[in-house]
Amino acid sequence: MASKHILVIDDEIGIRELLRDILQDEGYQVQLAENAAAARAMRLHERPDVVLLDIWMPDCDGISLLKEWANGGLLTMPVVMMSGHGTIDTAVEATRIGAFDFLEKPIALQKLLKTVATALKHSEQLPKSEMNLISLGKSPIVAALKERLDKIAMSSSVAPSPVLLIGPLGCGAELCARFLHNAGTPWLALTEFSQLVNAPLEILGQANDGVVYLPEIAELSKTEQKGLLLLITKAEKYNVRVICGTSHNLQKLQAEGLFDHNLLQLLSAVSLRVPALEEHKEDIPDLVLTIANLQFEVANLPYREIDIAALNALRNASWPGDIAQLDAVVRNLIQTSLGDKITLDDVNRVMHQFDGQMHSELKVIVDAAVVGVKPTGLENDVNLNQPLREARDEFERQYFNHHIKLVAGNMNKLAEISGLERTHLYRKLKQLDVKIKG
């Protein structure tokens, strides 16, 4: 078995080298960093199994570096803080941010080895790196969202209230929902809505003391809405928080008789709007780096820098698919760019790769309109003498049938063209009764 990798960060050379010698004698692989700048570079290139981090350093204190890694999605390993004159308040602050433990200098040999061994066991149990609420950004609008979510999470009510998250598709609503989920308790993302009709209490039994999350409740049938209403009213008995997301105007749907009035009233008691990425574009560079760093780590890919021009282009781009679209573009850049750096040319290539196809399809539609014929694949004109929702469904049905033929049933390509995340795409096709075939 490969030896475990430990990163020691301390500005005092004597302490760094002493810790290295002790840990190497125990069979560990040890890297040394004399300051935060060196530690940042090492962390970007690889994930150590454990970090020993001094609190007091000249260029950046350890608490700030710890917070920086937490904000950037890089706090995916146990970090043990070290200090020669630490205080209880400092230890509490470090633990709150995500530090695993705290060692006071001078560090006793047995205490050091025991703490490192315990941290290594914890490291093996950590889940894969993933985005979290902190990843959404630091802008004022996101900071306010975090404060409101924190207030909901800390509510002293007897039972957790249901929560409605309102925002465009791909805006990060699930990150908000997961923030309200307590670690070590069940998390149930409900995508098979028929369970709401057939076995709502079984859902609560599976999620006992945890969270049930429904990503888009506007897609529920009236019967499924009744099932959700029953589930929410019984949730207190199971200590389950029900969190629902939507990108639709539920009040409008309720006025049209398409959404249950009682369910809407119940969900409206605790509702939050999750901002679109267009509302906090200043967060895009940090979001891009977080997504990229997670990919380098999870996919075990070599680290590559994203240059400033590329980051600026991503910040200034339009994101109709929101954070989900940004995530897809960054993953594409990482997988398909050839150079040592991801450059502006790479961003332009990925952002515009569908332009030729879109222009071609648009030309077919325009030409057809000029000569008075329908484009191939659109079987019928949409009947405009019907309610908006039915007309929209009819158009979407034709839209998806058209593109399914173009991509020969390839769901990856269909998701890219439509700008929908795969899970949502499958639900949408099921709702419209569109068969997946080439």
UniProtKB/TrEMBL annotation:
The modification 4-aspartylphosphate is found at D54. Keywords: ATP-binding, Nucleotide-binding, Phosphoprotein, Transcription, Transcription regulation, Two-component regulatory system. This is Sigma-54-dependent Fis family transcriptional regulator. Residues 135-335 form the Sigma-54 factor interaction domain. Residues 5-120 form the Response regulatory domain. Pfam families: AAA_lid_14, HTH_8, Response_reg, Sigma54_activ_2. The lineage of its organism: Bacteria, Pseudomonadati, Pseudomonadota, Betaproteobacteria, Nitrosomonadales. SUPFAM superfamilies: CheY-like, Homeodomain-like, P-loop containing nucleoside triphosphate hydrolases. It comes from Methylotenera oryzisoli. GO terms for molecular function: ATP binding; sequence-specific DNA binding.
